[in-house]
């Protein structure tokens, strides 16, 4: 699932944080987190073992399987202490399964580890990181267990619980001879494609007959000729536990690729198998099965994630929902405010709730914390001493067992009437003695939990229906016979039938855990990590640089440092729902050249502290191979270094004057010195380094030719070093003068790149402008205009802007008398020369665009094309850079009218009035500002709707580069904050086309629900609400997404009250969106697209194919370069079969 991230040695990590291959001694492991409120334990993911975790939890919550395994003692299985002895036959796999189940039952930790178990399988670290199919694992694990239990009393464990038989029969229609063949099964594999559900699939398999006739006859052995016959199958023997595997993955022979079947596939909570059985004489309960586990797969056929819904048959967990739990927390908080200081009363009340008024001593402290929200050490230790000592000092109230492992109340303990207690003591009894909300329900109420690796939380039975379809859907079903009843002593008793040696081992482990947690209780347990998302970066100029904003490219994650790297990977995988393929986490560092990746985080069982991940660490999330099609070298040896290179160049019209030119370059630290000649296009020459001890001095030393093969790091170069490069054709006198040469150092001279963004030029031009630190902005602007050969008389019509880190125009340089030093502009920075005067402080220069809705006529229609210059009138579909038009987007036509300079204090109405006065707008018939609708222009499309005319522009937070688009209206409108403006289009029956868009105002006062929108659209078109279908159009994808309440995706991290809103995913409905409407009374076509949509999609696919080919070419070129340089690449490993190694016990 995540790729091969881990090495086999989990006891050590890299010694150098930015080095490779070095090891260090780890710190002491911090204790794992305790169980959460469900009181159930998850299983930690080793990187790709979610499929294993889901199956193990299913077996663990199969009590009959668990207890049958527990019944096998050391006399049959051997002992783990003897596993290394040469002659000892130790059955390691069942022993490790026993220990794991005991840990899941009794060990107070949030998640158990499967490392010992997978080691017993003979798996390497690569196997633990490679995801496999859980259906395949189920068969292989059962086979390994059968082999391991040969010669023991549990040799028939799998056969007894899971084995069933199927009989296939062929009946000759001539002689009625029956030919049958019996097949054994441990799980039933059923089809999903073109099948509505499990019962339908079983009916096709075990009720329907296949007839052999016509050209497909059957050869009867009795008749000795081809005859007509009927073939059928029936279930002959039913196992106590029925496992059903769903064939979700298929192969498309047209596209020659695998795919996952995500259609709706129902399965019942209780199923009657009598219609599918050969024998029907048994009592009905023999055929009734109850669902108790559903293994779910999320993702596609080449990767994804497994988790499991499990029914807690023995009620081992606390089936309590967070909203119910919060009510209890409020009562406990009020109880704490009463400041009850009588620990005897509190402990007695806790024991009264336990079975037989008895509890293990190590669980008493946990019960106290769960009930009161505060530990014994914090509340009572200072006054009453340790808990164990306190119990020993009150033998008349509390009875300790002989080994002091359990505590109970004497049988004759006094029972107080509530009226005899003080008010606060009575409240303790009422609060603590009250059962949790989940336990007060009907005892037969099924308790279901969602176990997702380490996390366990309760779910309701009806939540199972959400896994009928979609990318996240049921993959394996587990049923148990309804007649299998559990004994009363097993209910809510995790110690039931656990062997005594495992009970002692778990009790000792719990005591050790409590001691370790007490030591770490005061430590700060969380810190912040900066996640850099690989798909949002590009490799440029020797380092990684973000392609988008800081918010999109870097995510801040607060994480518990006591958790493991495996937990961190799992959390990031859950956080990045869009991620596909392998995921690798690497430590990165910001350097002057950009972001550089140093080493990959290996070792799933290591905590973040042991991996030496510090607070504020930069973590790069990628696939471990390439970024944007470019393979990335990692490690400190290839760290990018930013140098200032000085070269002697000729300048002037006759090329008679020589001057020193400084430029910035980035080289890898392991690059040879001689590589500078190749990069700088210098055939040969000399390289000089400044060996002066202080920055103010200059002492240039030439590097001998023999040292040109050394790396930059070996020469002692670092970020900011200055290198002088001299060609052989230069004057020797300029190479090493007798006196200290007087070059313009990096501290005194800056070389600025000035780029022309003039909209009159088809191509951007860039020049270098030399300037000292005390050069003012005005001089830079004038020099740039001269170098770019722009009209000098229009010099005041240009201004300079900084380029932000997203390579877009940033804030303007308003203070033209300020120096570069004052503005903190350094060498190598890029400034943008943009047409237009700078607006005065407190004012905006707003580009105005005109949006003509398609199909409208009358007074909105402009009379022909306005007469205007290219810089004044342009058709476009996005925001200009101070008036610069861009490419035309799909289905949006915007007409550029000009720019308006206006104060931020002005109102939207005043902006409309000034826009109406533009020369280009005079060609349009505009009667009133009230008949204009204003939008912002974002990402080359209509953005926010500006509703209130009297609101000041600064309240809209338009910014310096915002554009405004005006749209004509037939009449005045007044939209409230709850109104949403949508464009509706009615589908034309029988044609792949829609009517022209019509504005629809939707009042969302009652919520942004799909039902409310459907009702509004139905009323608008005077159609029955049940006879329409609506969909939102995504123009950037040329796709329609149907809007209905059942297919709306809901983020689990969002609150329940926001689940039905159309403002969230996947619709993200907003003003201006297009809503398609289909009348199903006259139109039964399922396809919502049009011919133009097909054309647009085709163009997108061609563009995507072109980009993919370009990336492959770049990747190939990069691979060739790395291969020639001897740098090892990391190939993607092929799929490997799953196996479990078992010794011979026959």
TrEMBL record:
Classification via SUPFAM superfamilies: Cysteine proteinases
EC id: 3.4.19.12
GO molecular-function terms, A-Z: cysteine-type deubiquitinase activity
A Pfam entry, by short name: UBL_USP40
Enzyme superclass (EC): hydrolase
Record bears the keyword Electron transport: no
Residues of the USP domain: 41-482
GO cellular component: cytosol; nucleus
Keywords associated with the record: Hydrolase, Protease, Thiol protease, Ubl conjugation pathway
Chain segments carrying region Disordered: 1089-1146
Biased composition (Polar residues): 1089-1102
Biological process according to GO: protein deubiquitination; proteolysis
Catalytic activity: Thiol-dependent hydrolysis of ester, thioester, amide, peptide and isopeptide bonds formed by the C-terminal Gly of ubiquitin (a 76-residue protein attached to proteins as an intracellular targeting signal)
Family per record: Belongs to the peptidase C19 family.
PANTHER family in UniProt: UBIQUITIN CARBOXYL-TERMINAL HYDROLASE, UBIQUITIN CARBOXYL-TERMINAL HYDROLASE 40
Protein name stated in the entry: Ubiquitin carboxyl-terminal hydrolase 40
Protein source organism: Nannospalax galili (Northern Israeli blind subterranean mole rat)
């Amino acid at each position: 699932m995540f790729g091969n991230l881990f090495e086999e040695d989990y006891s050590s990590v890299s010694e150098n944080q930015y080095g490779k291959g070095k090891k260090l001694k780890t710190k002491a492991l911090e204790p794992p987190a305790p169980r959460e409120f469900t009181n159930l334990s998850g299983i930690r993911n080793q990187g790709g073992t979610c499929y294993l975790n889901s199956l193990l939890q299913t077996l663990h919550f199969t009590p009959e399987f668990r207890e049958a395994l527990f019944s096998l003692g050391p006399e049959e299985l051997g002992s783990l202490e003897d596993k290394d002895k040469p002659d000892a036959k130790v059955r390691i796999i069942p022993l490790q399964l026993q220990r794991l189940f005991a840990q899941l039952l009794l060990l107070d930790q949030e998640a158990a580890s499967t490392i010992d178990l997978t080691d017993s399988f003979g798996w390497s670290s690569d196997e633990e990181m490679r995801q496999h199919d859980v259906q395949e694992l189920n068969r292989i694990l059962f086979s390994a267990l059968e082999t391991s239990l040969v010669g023991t009393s549990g040799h028939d464990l799998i056969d007894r619980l899971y084995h069933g038989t199927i009989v296939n029969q062929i009946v000759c229609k001539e002689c009625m001879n029956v030919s049958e063949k019996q097949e054994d099964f441990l799980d039933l594999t059923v089809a999903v494609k073109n099948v509505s559900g499990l019962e339908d699939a079983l009916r096709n398999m075990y009720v329907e007959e296949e007839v052999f006739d016509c050209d497909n006859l059957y050869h009867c052995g009795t008749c000795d000729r081809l005859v007509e016959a009927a073939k059928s199958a029936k279930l002959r023997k039913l196992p106590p536990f029925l496992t059903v595997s769903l064939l979700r993955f298929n192969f498309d022979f047209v596209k020659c690729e695998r795919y996952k079947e995500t259609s709706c596939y129902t399965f019942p909570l209780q199923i009657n198998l009598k219609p599918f059985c050969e024998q029907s004489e048994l009592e009905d309960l023999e055929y009734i099965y109850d669902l108790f586990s559903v293994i779910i797969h999320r993702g596609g056929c080449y990767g994804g994630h497994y988790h499991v819904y499990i029914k807690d048959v023995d009620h081992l967990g606390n089936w309590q929902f967070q909203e119910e739990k919060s009510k209890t927390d409020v009562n406990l908080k009020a109880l704490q405010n009463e400041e009850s200081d009588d620990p005897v009363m509190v402990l007695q009340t806790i024991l009264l709730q336990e079975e037989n008024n008895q509890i293990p001593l190590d669980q008493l402290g946990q019960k106290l914390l769960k009930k009161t929200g505060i530990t014994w050490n914090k509340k009572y230790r200072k006054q009453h001493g340790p808990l164990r000592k306190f119990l020993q000092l009150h033998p008349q109230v509390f009875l300790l067992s002989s080994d002091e492992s359990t505590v109970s109340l004497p049988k004759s303990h006094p029972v107080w009437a509530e009226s005899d207690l003080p008010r606060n003591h009575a409240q303790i009894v009422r609060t603590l003695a009250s059962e949790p909300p989940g336990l007060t329900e009907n005892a037969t109420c099924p308790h279901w939990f969602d176990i997702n690796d380490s996390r366990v939380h309760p779910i309701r039975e009806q939540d199972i229906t959400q896994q009928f379809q979609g990318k996240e859907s049921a993959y394996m079903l587990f049923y148990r016979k309804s007649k299998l009843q559990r004994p009363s002593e097993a209910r809510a008793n995790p110690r039931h039938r656990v062997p005594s040696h495992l009970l002692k081992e778990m009790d000792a482990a719990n005591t050790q855990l409590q001691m370790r947690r007490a030591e770490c209780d005061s430590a700060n347990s969380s810190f912040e990590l900066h996640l850099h998302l690989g798909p949002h970066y590009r490799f440029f100029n020797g380092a990684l640089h973000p392609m988008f904003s800081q918010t999109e490219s870097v995510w801040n994650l607060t994480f518990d440092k006591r958790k493991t790297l495996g937990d961190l990977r799992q959390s990031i995988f859950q956080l990045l729902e869009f991620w596909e393929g392998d995921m690798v986490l690497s430590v990165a560092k910001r350097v002057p050249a950009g972001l550089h990746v140093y080493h990959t985080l290996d070792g799933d069982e290591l905590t973040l502290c042991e991996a030496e991940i510090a607070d504020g660490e930069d973590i790069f999330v990628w696939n471990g191979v390439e970024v944007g099609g470019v393979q990335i070298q990692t490690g400190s040896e290839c760290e990018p270094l930013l140098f200032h290179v000085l070269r002697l160049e000729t300048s002037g019209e006759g090329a008679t004057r020589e001057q020193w030119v400084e430029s910035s370059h980035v080289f890898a630290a392991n690059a040879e010195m001689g590589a500078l000649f190749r990069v700088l296009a210098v055939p040969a020459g000399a390289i000089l380094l400044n060996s002066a001890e202080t920055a103010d001095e200059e002492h240039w030393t030439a590097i001998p030719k023999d040292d040109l093969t050394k790396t930059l790091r070996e020469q002692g170069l670092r970020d900011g070093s200055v290198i002088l490069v001299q060609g052989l054709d230069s004057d020797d006198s300029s190479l090493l003068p007798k006196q200290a040469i007087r070059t313009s150092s990096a501290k005194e001279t800056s070389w600025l790149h000035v780029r022309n963004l003039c909209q009159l030029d088809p191509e951007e031009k860039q020049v270098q402008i030399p300037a000292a630190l005390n050069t003012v902005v005005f001089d830079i602007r004038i020099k740039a205009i001269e170098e770019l050969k722009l009209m000098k008389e229009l010099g005041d019509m240009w201004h300079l802007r900084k380029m932000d880190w997203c390579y877009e125009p940033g804030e303007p340089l308003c203070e033209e008398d300020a120096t570069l030093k004052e503005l903190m502009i350094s060498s190598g920075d890029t400034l943008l020369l943009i047409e237009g005067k700078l607006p005065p402080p407190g004012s905006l220069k707003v580009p105005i665009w005109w949006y003509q809705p398609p199909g409208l006529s009358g007074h909105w229609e402009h009379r022909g094309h306005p007469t205007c210059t290219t810089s004044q009138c342009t058709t476009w579909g996005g925001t200009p850079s101070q008036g610069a038009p861009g490419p035309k987007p799909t289905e949006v036509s915007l007409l550029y009218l000009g720019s308006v300079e206006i104060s931020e204090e002005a109102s939207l109405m005043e902006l409309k009035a000034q826009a109406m006065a533009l020369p280009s707008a005079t060609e349009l018939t505009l009667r009133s500002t009230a008949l204009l609708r204003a939008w912002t222009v974002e990402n080359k499309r209509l953005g926010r709707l500006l509703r209130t005319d009297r609101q000041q522009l600064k309240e809209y937070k338009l910014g310096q580069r915002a554009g405004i688009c005006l749209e004509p209206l037939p009449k005045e409108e007044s939209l409230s904050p709850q109104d949403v403006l949508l464009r509706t289009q009615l589908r034309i029956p029988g044609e792949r086309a829609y009517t022209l868009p019509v504005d629809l105002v939707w009042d969302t006062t009652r919520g942004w629900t799909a039902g409310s929108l459907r009702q509004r659209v139905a009323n608008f078109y005077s159609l029955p609400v049940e006879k329409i279908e609506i969909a939102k159009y995504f123009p950037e994808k040329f796709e329609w997404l149907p809007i209905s309440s059942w297919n709306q995706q809901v983020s689990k991290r969002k609150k329940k009250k926001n689940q039905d809103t159309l403002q969230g995913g996947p619709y993200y409905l907003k003003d201006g969106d297009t809503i398609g409407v289909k009348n199903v009374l006259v139109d039964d076509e399922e396809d919502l697209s049009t011919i133009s949509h097909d054309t647009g999609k085709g163009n997108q696919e061609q563009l995507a194919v072109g980009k993919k080919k370009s990336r492959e070419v770049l990747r190939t070129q990069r691979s060739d370069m790395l291969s020639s340089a001897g740098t090892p690449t990391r190939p993607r490993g092929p799929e490997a079969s799953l196996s479990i190694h078992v010794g011979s016990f026959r």
